[in-house]
Amino acid sequence: MSTTSPPEDTSVLVGGGVIAAGYGERAAGRGTLTAVPEDRPAALRRATAAIVGLAPVTGELAGRFVAAGHELSLVGGPVRDAFLGRAVNDLDFTTDARPDEVERVLTGWADATWDMGRDFGTIGARRGEHTVEITTYRTDAYDGETRKPVVVFGDTLVEDLERRDFTVNAMAVRLPDLEFVDPFGGMDDLVARRLRTPGTPERSFGDDPLRMMRAARFASQVGMTPDPAALAAMTAMSDRLSIVSAERVRDELVKLLLGRDPRAGLTLLVDTGLAEHVLPELPALRLEVDEHHRHKDVYEHTLTVLEQAIALEGDHRDPDAVVPGPDLVLRLAALMHDVGKPGTRRFEPGGGVSFHHHEVVGAKLTAARLRALRFDKQTVKDVSRLVELHLRFHGYGDGVWTDSAVRRYVTDAGPLLQHLHRLTRSDSTTRNARKAQRLRLAYDDLERRIAEVQAQESLKAVRPDLDGTAIMRLLDLAPGPLVGRAYTHMLAVRMDQGPLPPEAAEAELRRWWAEQPESRA
């Protein structure tokens, strides 16, 4: 940080406030200002306009803290996003006030408050449509053994900024004067799309190893790249991630996958070794070199499938979008669809290679990994089901799609049919234009056949023509396994033959029953 004061014309006057770039504090008191390069005023103006646009929320809140004798600054993500021109929604503030004092200041102003983060110095509040989090200055760190940070409250803004993950998140705006505080050069790094830590990366990642994953998340969300020092530390310290709770790791992975360029973030995880502790199935796809090139690069294929699946998502702003993006289930399924290949690869006589039943193995691996990352049950179920079904289309080869095959395909996919359509289409990464065209046309034909059969029948929930009650009445059976077997048979008949008239369904049931040994007992 420069020790010279900036010329007066490098500060920016907006909305009655002054943004003085690079304001810092030292242990002995206030430090000096760092000049903003002259090509930055436009960025400062844009950011300040976004912050001023949040008034009267920020102004009202700042006024209450100042009146109570406390400091208040907008900090971290909202400041970063304001510079990037991204929407600023939830507001993060930092203050010298302790949690109890924060609650007193909020009393009478907030519509609601909550203190789930009290142990970490955070009090949440809602005012109208705005949600705010106010955190006491902190200097927390991991103790190296437990999975939770040791929280120590601090006394100055710069002390709080120094403990943050990256310089681009260590910028603040003092309120109510709109004084821009950037003691670690975060603005320069933001312009350069560079991730750098306020202190040494070894100390930063040692304090909270999840920050290494956060670097990969920023690569996906905003296209930032760790500087050489941070990259080296991430690689050397990747095993430290094991002390972080699965829930926190999962949340970062989700944000990464829902970013605009997940491939960049995933590549960073794999290249640094972090993926070995988060999603080891992904680097495992980098199968040892096959000098005879008997199969495609599964790792690169997977990343391409992910990108192609994302391209098939609908616009989230379109109310008619079938699978609006970003869709976590689709993206997870694309990422995991081939994780069963390493364990099923076999080199066949004659030079071929096979991955028999890799979809079944992959579904089990996917469910186990997502459960380990503490994903909810529905996400685990949906993603693993898509992995299991992703080859179903190819099982029919170039054959004609019969009504029976269409019914089974739709019924097996259930509510995931539109996801399966997109996953299957994205799974074609061949460079052979003729083969790619043939696969597209074949899937077009399948979707056409599905539409035809759906127009004739209700395929959303295919059920037998006779339910359990009817089966028990016609065969004079009590509830039990026999009824289940009969139901399964009638469901298979429904799949193969479509809906039957009542008389035909009853005749088929009696025919089946006559062949069962229990009918002669």
TrEMBL record:
Its EC number is 2.7.7.72. It is an enzyme of class 2 (transferase). The keyword Nucleus does not apply. It comes from Aquipuribacter hungaricus. SUPFAM superfamilies: Nucleotidyltransferase, Poly A polymerase C-terminal region-like. SMART domains: HDc (SM00471). Keywords: Magnesium, Metal-binding, Nucleotide-binding, Nucleotidyltransferase, Transferase, tRNA processing. NCBIfam families: HDIG, tRNA_CCA_actino. The keyword Cell inner membrane does not apply. This is CCA tRNA nucleotidyltransferase. Pfam families: HD (PF01966), PolyA_pol (PF01743), PolyA_pol_RNAbd (PF12627). Its cofactor is Mg(2+). GO terms for molecular function: CCA tRNA nucleotidyltransferase activity. It comes from the Bacteria. InterPro entries: Bact_CCA-adding_enz_type3_sf, HD/PDEase_dom, HD_domain, HDIG_dom, NT_sf, PolA_pol_head_dom, PolyA_RNA-bd, tRNA_adenylyltransferase. Coiled coil: none annotated. Residues 298-426 form the HD domain.
